[in-house]
């Protein structure tokens, strides 16, 4: 009977909560993009994965090679060289993410398993408390919407990038026909075989870049959102700390002593039990807070080089894309650059937004500890609360290569840096 009830709940989706693997959606995206190894250590999927990875990575490397060749052939043409630089930097970033995950696959798997363990620590408290469960579900919804929304936007944009070369007009004296990413001098649509091959290879790179590069960004963003959710759950637990024992214990207290205690003695013993219970709950909160801090240190070690590379490549991409929109005389090039411009800015913003939320939730731990019912409790509880508040006042700040803090101020400074470099390029062109 219990088996049937469980099966029915699973079929109806009544109690489906992503406790077991909160990142399963992101892992599926990366696995589809050729970044994440298959779960099984044997079978045809495991054997075919290196070839799958090589095909995706090879497409991106092919675009980088074509960008270098085009820059060499058209050296001196500022517009063409800068357009090739945008494409090259974007694909270099994607290749770096893929290789980093491929080389450290065990570390990435540990990142997922430890996050699931972190969620499991506070699961018993969430299942019995509506506020805690709401905070957990809110984090899961935010991660799902961000992942699905960004990937949907990028896939629609990628399809537009692939369609624009087919519908764009080619001037009669043009040296080449347009392609989604890199046009090859001397390759025209009349040469259908080579043009079709180059077109399909570049469409392959555009399609899989969305899942490999942007999918990695959504992976780390989802982790940060889940960690923020765990901090919010911890804050609610700290706020709900009260000096009260269970009614059952209080009812059994006179029978368990075997003496006719006075009303004052009973009150003192109940207060002592209440202090002990509150102190025990506070100790559990402290342990979970320490577990979150330890996990954030591990997350920073894994994520730091990826975020630093993303910041550097995105700054260059935004700068050069602004230059292209300003000075590119071709209509199709302006359209493609205008469609591409939000992408590097979005990739920077996602990291900075999620990292800033972690910092704010971490600082809120101190206020949550102060907001509990600490008035009149024992010295042990107040001393522990002071320690928690002092530790929580240090910001939980992730960094990119120990250079940039991952927060909203960094996002503004990087956008300002992109505009500064753009102004420098304009001055160089005018001279």
Automatic annotation (TrEMBL):
Single GO cellular component term: plasma membrane
Subcellular location per the Swiss-Prot or TrEMBL entry: Cell membrane
Domain of life: Eukaryota
Residue ranges of the region described as Disordered: 247-267
Matching Pfam families: 7tm_6
Keyword set, alphabetical order: Cell membrane, Membrane, Olfaction, Receptor, Sensory transduction, Transducer, Transmembrane, Transmembrane helix
GO biological process terms held by the UniProt record: signal transduction
InterPro entries according to UniProt: 7tm6_olfct_rcpt
TM segment ranges: 49-69, 193-212, 306-327, 333-354
Gene Ontology terms for molecular function: odorant binding; olfactory receptor activity
Topology term for the membrane: Multi-pass membrane protein
Main location as per UniProt: membrane
Protein family (similarity comment): Belongs to the insect chemoreceptor superfamily. Heteromeric odorant receptor channel (TC 1.A.69) family.
Designated name of the protein: Odorant receptor
